[in-house]
Amino acid sequence: MQRRIIWKTCHFARIHCLVDQKACFTSKRTLPVGGETDDPLYADVPRPPKKMSERKPYPTPMKVLIRRAKEEKEARKAEPCRMLEEPPDNGLLVPELVEVAHQVYQARKSLLFGLSKLVQVVPVQRCRFCSEVHIGHVGHEIRTCTGPNSGFRSATHVWSKGGVQHVVSFPKCFHLFDRVGKPRVGHDERFEIPRIPAILELCIQAGLEIDKYPTKRRTRPVYSIEGRIVDFELVNKMDDVNRNSYSGIVDLVVHSDIKTDVEELRNSDLQSDTNLVDKTLPSDKVGKSLSELSIITMDSWFEMISGAKKIMEKYSVKTCGYCLEVQVGPKGHKVRMCKASKHQSRNGLHAWQEATIDDLVGPNYVWHVRDIDGPALDNNLKRYYGKAPAVVELCVQAGAPVPNEYRSMMRLDVASPERDEVDLVA
């Protein structure tokens, strides 16, 4: 009898411990991690990039995308022939975003102009073997190099002088003459259509007019017949516009007599952009102090990013799930140029998905340096260092105040120990 009582008490005690342990685990899961829910300005240091074999995370959950696809399919069955009413799906512009497109275009000009001046004062270091960038006179000693033969160097970087193209990157995409009538670029058309910065293509589709890159503007909405776009608008000048008009632009890149090195192309594009900025911006900005110029440059960065986010809410942008390719438009192109993981199963086609602002404008996160004249960052203290976009770090080193959005990411409230105190810190 006593044995039964003892066995029952032990059995109830085990169940009680399991229940308490389960409740403890569930309570820990419901707690906010790092204050993300309490502080909207909190942003942790970005994690290192995943393996190239892993796909990028979807900005919109897959269940939401499946539900939207089913709703669109049912709407096409219920009404096979219908006129699209909401812009820009119907081929018309969104009126309130036309001014935003012009602001983003001007902000990009101002950003390139400011960076071209700041780079001459604040040095920029780049690794010769990988995409790592550092802002400062001396490159850091953190072993994060993933370039060729990095194992023989113990993953240490080999630094050389960098430029504006290493601080911020603007991925290129194909320019679409008619984003609704012909949203896809075929593989055989890859040499006939120019490639321009994706953020510039986004501004053009949102209402920016550039003579060098013409685009079709409609005055009436299009129709959708069983999922296919049909345009009944009579355009007399449609036959006059020919895709061969791009040949003069494309020959600069495709011609065999001209060098096609990637770095030289980026430098030439950057020089043309800065020359254009020098002509358009007022001359009084050149004589301003370094701190004022850094503040103006950082404001241009935030204005460009915020404006691009507003436009991307209406105008879709696609990116490959495995590589850095970007295409502005309702659909991705069909050019077989993907060389990332599993491209053999896709026959070189890209795995298109919804893009984010980081895919449209490469922020290129760098380590934050508190004292630009101090010693190099130590590899053993890397967990105490913060990060920030290269543009923000460059402007802060030039005298601009630290923005509130990146205070937690730069870890300004963390006191890093000295090199001789590493063993004393837990």
Structural class: alpha+beta
Estimated share of beta-strand residues: 5-15%
Number of strands: 13
C-alpha-based Rg, rounded: 27 Å
Number of domains: 1
**Overall body shape:** globular
| Helical content class | 25-40%
The spatial strand order of the largest sheet comes to 1-7-8
List segments where confidence is low: pLDDT < 50 over at least 5 consecutive residues: 1-37, 235-287
Mean pLDDT value: 78
Order of H and E elements: HHEHEEEHEEHEEHHHEEEHEEHH
Main sheet record: 3 strands, antiparallel
Q: Treating each run of at least 4 consecutive H or I residues as one helix, how many helices?
A: 11
Q: Calculate the terminal CA-CA distance, rounded to whole Å.
A: 53 Å
Structural account:
This protein has one domain. It has eleven helices and 13 strands. A hairpin with a 5-residue loop joins strand 9 and strand 10. The radius of gyration is 27 Å and the shape is globular. It has 426 residues and is an alpha+beta fold. Strands 1-7-8 form a three-stranded antiparallel beta sheet, with no helix packed on it. Strands 3-2-4 form a three-stranded antiparallel beta sheet. Strands 10-9-11 form a three-stranded antiparallel beta sheet. This is APO protein 3. GO terms for molecular function: RNA binding. InterPro entries: APO_dom.
Task: Compile the SSE list and pairings.
Elements: H1 2-30, H2 62-78, E1 81-83, H3 95-118, E2 124-127, E3 133-135, E4 159-161, H4 164-167, E5 172-174, E6 195-197, H5 198-205, E7 223-225, E8 228-230, H6 247-254, H7 262-280, H8 290-312, E9 317-320, E10 326-328, E11 352-354, H9 357-360, E12 365-367, E13 387-389, H10 390-397, H11 407-410
Antiparallel strand pairs: 1-7, 2-3, 2-4, 5-6, 7-8, 9-10, 9-11, 12-13
Helix pairs in contact: 3-5, 3-7, 3-8, 8-10
